[in-house]
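quick one, 448 residues, struct below
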Amino acid sequence: MRYIPNTVETEKKILQAIGAGSFDELISNIPEKFLKNFEIQLPEKLSEFEVTKLLTELAAKNKNTQDNLSFLGGGSYDHFIPSVVGTLLSRSEIYTAYTPYQPEVSQGTLQTIYEFQSMICELFSMDVSNASLYDGATAIAEAAILALGHVNKKNKILVSPFLKPEYIKVLAAYMDKHDAEIEILPEENGLTNFDALETKLENAVGLIVQSPNYLGNIEMLDEIKAKFANSKALFIMVSDPIGNALLKTPGELQADIAVAEGQALGIPQAYGGPYLGLFTANEKLIRKMPGRIIGKTVDIDGKDAFALILQTREQHIRREKATSNICTNQGLMATAATIYLSLMGKEGIKQVANICLHQAHALAEMIEQVKGFKLAYKGRPFFKEFVVQTPVPARDIVEAGKKQNIFPGIDLGKYKEAWKYHLLVAVTEKRSREDLETLVNFLSGFSK
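---
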């Protein structure tokens, strides 16, 4: 306890209040193997130059999507990020800014978040957006928590079988603490089967559907809202923010809550994070939304002013009334998304989406010409991601690709044995015709 700034007297008082005679007695129930003092083998001391050289060599062993040809997707995509995003983001007044606990002196931060909320609402065709969350997974979990609080005396969440597997794991972890039940809906050839949905909704607080789903297929959601007619359950949709520029938006599909992973909006893949959780909803749910919401008003002189209008976390209101305990709104990542969206504009985002769409379909057609390869869900509409059925285990293809500086896609076999020969391939606007041909030539080596 050498790093805890307590005096001996204070420590005695703490132990007495706990009911322990000593610190050793306090930790006596911890197995000995976890308390053993291990000798740390530290290398000889190095100079600054030597440390820099060593760390540079270690960093060079990392594989990244900047120096390798990447067709990875599954929620994290290698989209182009204009250089001005990083330039503006690194300015000290932005880079060092934190959550505005004293909003009256944080007008710049508040305005940035307000602009972020406005653009996210427009991108999703939804009424309100909060000031962002940790990532897509926790945004989904928070949406489920909102649904639990919105619908009384029910605790079941209906979930599409093709929600990203990691999202389901995070959701399950959150729901365990809320004594909520997750029911996975049946599947049918790469899409969710909604046949018995109306009956299931009678005992549920909400339905969570991802479209395009984890396999890249676009779910048939045009008539989904009609199935909620006799239920108070909420329709929660997980979408691709870039895809929203071309596909029907969550708002157009009458979603009550729409969430997403915002990494595609100007944020590097960065070894898994930090990323950005997007959370939007209908106006009727605004007081139950987690996190913070920024509003615009005028000050005493009639000038524009920004304020935290809703702060539904326990730091700002009574704990029992709080809707979340979110400690940060990923402000820097939200700012990156704001800069990106401002630069791209409506037409720019639509152009990116169009390129992704056409390049993905072009690649799918090219792969189908390779002997032994075919689309696993041929005929299903997809946006920028699709599943390829492979003649050898997908894992073998992924491992071979690493040696040639190619990330050919995601081995879906790590999730299900039935997907052992399934490869999830994603295409962004960064992939040229030459890149597509490189992948096809690589895959040709596995023809059977």
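The radius of gyration is 25 Å.
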